Amino acid sequence: MRRILAMILATVLLLLAAFEAPARAEDDVRIQEEIWALPLPLPMFAYLVRPVGDGPFPLVIMNHGVSLNPTDRSFFPLVEFRDAAKWFARRGYLVVAPVGSGYGAAAIDIPERGIYGPFFSKVGKCANPNFHDAGLAVAQVDLWIIDYMAAERRIIPKDVIVVGQSAGGWASIALSSVNPPQVKAIITFAAGRGGRVGGKPNNNCAPDKLVEATADFGRTARVPMLWIYIENDTFFGPELSKRMHAAFTAAGGRAEYHLMPPFGNEGHFFIGSPDAIPLWSPLVTKFLDAQR
Question: How distant, in Å, are the alpha carbons of 40, 169, 279, 283 from that of 275?
Answer without folding.
Answer: 34, 20, 8, 15
